[in-house]
Design brief:
By secondary structure, the chain is α/β, with parallel strands linked by helices. Helix content is 34%, strand content 27%. A hairpin with a 5-residue loop joins strand 12 and strand 13. The protein binds flavin-adenine dinucleotide (FAD).
Length: 496
Amino acid sequence: MENKIILDKYDLVVIGGGPAGTPVAMEFAKLKKNSQILLIDAKGELGGECLFDGCIPSKILEVCSKELKDLKRLKKLGLRIENESFSWKDIVLRKEKILERRTNAAKENLFSLGNVTLLKGVASFIDENKVKVISHDKEFIISFDKCVIATGSKPFIPNFKGNGMDKIWTNDILFDKMELPKSLTIIGDGPIGIELSQILSGFGVKINLIGNKDFILPMIEKKYSNFILENIENDPNINLILNVNVDRINYDENKNEFTVLFRNNKDNLEGSVISEKVLIATGRRSNISNLNLDKAKIKYNDRGIEVNEYLQTTNKNIYASGDVVFKFPKFAHTSSYGAHIISQNLFFGKNKFKTNFDKNSWVLFSDPGFASAGISEEEAEKRNLDIVVGEYNFNENAKSQIEEKDFGFLKFIVNKKNLQIIGVEVLNKDANILGGEASLIVSKKITLVDLVNSIHPHPTISEGFVFLAKKMMGEIMEERMKNPMFKLVFFFKKLF
Ligand SMILES: Cc1cc2nc3c(=O)[nH]c(=O)nc-3n(C[C@H](O)[C@H](O)[C@H](O)COP(=O)(O)OP(=O)(O)OC[C@H]3O[C@@H](n4cnc5c(N)ncnc54)[C@H](O)[C@@H]3O)c2cc1C
């Protein structure tokens, strides 16, 4: 490398152009127009893991897979579609176009602000207020007033034995392949493993899905995760293997196939599966190893950077958001929410805004889908909250019946005293759509009474929110009327 060292200074340096880094650069640039901001990204593109290897490519495939599966449902609607087929190559090319459109639009927005520079390169700290960036044949030494670390995460790959380890796939490799394997072993039954199994099974890929516990999706109430489990078990393209620990991954060059060997946790018996490819989805680890965090006096552990509730690190001039942060909900939207908190705190010049993940919402794009907002019944009980819980069955819903999608549940977790809805859960094909309203209900502290008094359009699945609120209010009133004191108060309230 030609040793060109360029010195520069910025008001704000942001490391990482994903959902955590890009919005903080843009929001701060808008809030403080006279400031100069440098956004550094290793790829030199905007979007991060979410756009290039995560949320967006997986959901582009999910839509195609769902449409293919839905063709079977169309027969129930009286429609006949013959000879359905697909071109994987066309699907991948369409995905590329969407990604390009989105990253270009983000860059256009960023550059239109006029005070943000995007630098392609890998950044690391050299002291408490300076980073070094290696970019092509140049080295930059950049000092900053404030800095935000948003370097995200990468797949965690356990140290399995065997000669196949250097040929395994992770999510980032899968999405770029122009050909689909006929068979694939997915190790890891977390959200990524489940989503990918169900998506790829829709394209006819024979999947071995391997998990190390005797249940799946511990973050979801068992009643609901069991429906997802049942669907996986009934999927002719998915061979679900639970409660085993993978030992070894062997690759046979002559046969061009992998053998994954594992031991059952119950009886320690050995088993194996054979497939054309192996994909590992055993979790993620924060991207901190090359940052030289010690030089900037930033505290961290092997799971990420430690921050306070304002997302400030142990270096008061450096904040962090997104997957790189320890104990941070690992989603694109929480990363961007963190970016918003940081830009506000930077703008006001002091820590005014705290994170509150009790109002977080998220969607699992499984089949059926699952959405959650606020806190679960289990969490409410752990916190000793006085709650009342209600459930609505989508088989009562007109729109669900019309669309032959009349399966699933809506659940409210409600504070018994003030009737505020503190948690919403949805198990439904359209859970991702209902997740938006669920998020607002929780974050705006909507009560059952507010929902009863709202006017939802008919016929829609969102009417479920009102039906459930009415049902719960009826039950609560009936219960309260049994109390003579309440009866008396109610009587006087009616009188005056
Ligand atoms: C298969 C899959 C599906 C997912 N689906 C969803 C979903 O549906 N919904 C959802 O909310 N979330 C989803 N996620 C999670 C989501 O992608 C992440 O939570 C999100 O991308 C985190 O954003 P981030 O900005 O913290 O990090 P990233 O998106 O990882 O961005 C970090 C950026 O920093 C850059 N970088 C790293 N180190 C350096 C360095 N030293 N110098 C300069 N640049 C650097 C990287 O190149 C990258 O561009 C999914 C993830 C996966 C893997």
